[in-house]
Design a protein that fits this description.
This protein has about 150 residues and is mostly helical. The chain is built from seven helices and two strands. It starts with a helix and ends with a helix.
Length: about 150
Amino acid sequence: MHTMIDKVASECVAVRLRMLNRIVTNIYDDALRTLDLKVSQMNILVAAAKMGTARPVDVCEHLHLDVSTLSRNVERMKARGWLEVVPDEDGRSQPFRLTPQGRKLLEKAIPCWSEAQQQVKKALGDGFARQLNQTLKRVNESTLTG
């Protein structure tokens, strides 16, 4: 039993990914702090910018978020004037888009994000980001094909 506990403590991929996620998230959040923006919110702004009119189900699927997490973030971002709801025939869906203020914020955030991106790539080592993208693509494809 003790050796299995040691094995889990020293090798668990889930724990290591969660630890790495917190470290990396902190680097981006620190870089974006002057804009009162978190990287999780920036990703939603980017998704909205790319989609034009963003449907929550599509954003959740794309960013691998649960609906309540997206909804909570979108509400905060609407309150700050970064996002607005787009009228829709299905009143439940609540599609949203960037406001002009949200687009300006995103433009200001890009240099901060770039700085954090370079810092993370340097910390993680050459090739890690490329390998991460390939792995995520492979995992996404395998979950789509079953």
